[in-house]
Specification:
- By secondary structure, the protein is mainly alpha-helical.
- The chain has 8 helices and no strands.
- The chain has helices spanning 17-20, 22-43, 49-53, 56-64, 71-86, 96-107, 110-125, 136-141.
- The longest helix is centred in the N-terminal third of the chain and has 22 residues, at 22-43.
- The chain starts with 16 loop residues before the first helix and ends in a 40-residue tail after the last helix.
Length: 181
């Protein structure tokens, strides 16, 4: 892992620490918000919801100075938030219905998937627990914050502005393996 911006080591995974450590909970929440804010822009490259989600948590872990072992928790919270914005709030992450909801979201046209991801980001920031301001990406992207004009939808020759979102490339499903043993 690269050295975080402060030069301190990232917060390592600690069982149940997320439930008892206020600072850690804040970092996890901000990392989730940053991931949600980045999804619609990453989806502009033609990736569906799960394709855009895949791999982004490592980048938000770097930004929030969290160990990569926190990535699955951040990703799960983002999935829960998107499912809620889709209109099907899940009471628990590990219900069989959640995977069906994600499949239904992935089956929608890309523009609708982007809209759902944007709604999730906007709702997440307004959730009752507000620890710190939204990420820089959110202030630049989200029309709900009023910080910038709404993003221009693509047309012939349109170049999307990606200067305000964490740059990440989703992982491939089967990364190449080195030859050898």
């Amino acid at each position: 892992m690269d050295t975080p911006p402060t030069g301190r080591p990232p917060i390592p995974f600690q069982p149940v620490a997320w439930a008892t450590d206020h600072e850690l909970t804040g970092r996890l929440r901000r990392a989730t918000q940053t991931l949600l804010d980045s999804l619609p822009t990453v989806m502009e490259d033609g990736l569906g919801f799960t394709g855009a989600l895949h791999g982004g948590t490592q980048h938000v872990c770097d930004a929030a100075e969290l160990d990569y072992t926190w990535a699955p928790m951040i990703e799960a919270e983002a999935v829960r938030a998107v499912a809620d914005a889709f209109g099907d709030p899940s009471r628990a992450l590990f219900t069989p219905g959640l995977s069906r909801i994600v499949q239904r979201i992935d089956a929608l046209p890309l523009a609708e998937q982007q809209g759902i991801a944007q709604r999730a980001a906007d709702r997440y920031v307004r959730a009752p627990v507000r620890l710190l301001p939204r990420s820089t990406a959110a202030r630049a992207v989200s029309p709900a914050r009023g910080a910038s004009p709404p993003r221009q939808r693509g047309g012939p020759g349109a170049v999307p502005d990606r200067s305000n979102v964490l740059p990440f490339t989703p992982r491939t499903t089967n990364p190449p393996r080195p030859s050898g043993r």
